[in-house]
């Protein structure tokens, strides 16, 4: 009888442990299928474009994102709303310059 109670007790304890376990996962961001969309504003208008993602991971617990890291290549910035290639190139060079945002390439 004591042995059966001990087995039942251990079984119930194991159920308690597993019922409160946290469901956590790590998801890899697909660099081939993902990009960052940006929008910049200036006096008199805005510009939009994309930046390529090099790599990344998202961390979840109980189906909620709790963290992550994403590496982006700022030199891959593309402006999508300017038709003239020369003006697009000027803006892209300006956006990757140190006068707009100081970043380092690693």
TrEMBL record:
<protein>
    <submittedName>
        <fullName>Uncharacterized protein</fullName>
    </submittedName>
</protein>
<dbReference type="InterPro" id="IPR036761">
    <property type="entry name" value="TTHA0802/YceI-like_sf"/>
</dbReference>
